[in-house]
Specification:
single chain, mainly beta, five-stranded mixed barrel, two-stranded antiparallel sheet
Amino acid sequence: MGIPIHPPKIEDPLFQGYYDGLEAGELRITADAGTGEWIWYPPEVIPGKPDAVLEWRPVSPEGSAYTFTTVIRSLLPGDHKAEVPFTVVLFEPDDAPGVRVPGLLVGAEGVEPRCGMRLRFQPVQAGDHKIAGFAPVGAMKE
C-alpha cells in the first residue's frame, strides 16, 4: 500500500491541536470543556452554544473502522504512482462513540479491510508532517 504525500495538512489554527497530537503520538479530538461532549470536526462556534470553549483531549488509540474506501488511481496532477493504492478509513475511537476520524489503513498487507474491523492508532510520516494511520489490531508489529 502507498502513502499519499500530497500535503493534506490543514493550515488553520483551529486544527493545530490535532496535528500537535499526531506529532506527540496521540489522537486528539475536541470536546466541550464544560460538558465533555466530543465535538468533531472542531467548529469555530459550537451550534447552539456560542460561549462554549473547545479543548483538545486524547482519545483511546483502539477503535473500529466505521467505513473505508481504497484509492486505486491518484487524480492529482503529476506522478503519484508510488503513492497508490491506499485505503482511507473512518476510525471510531472506543471512548468517543459517534466520532469518526479519517486516516490511512496501514500495516494491513494481506488483510482485507472491512467495516467494524478492530484498529489501533498509528501515526504515519507523510512528507514533512504526520497523518493519522490505523493498523488492524491482529496485524500490528510491536
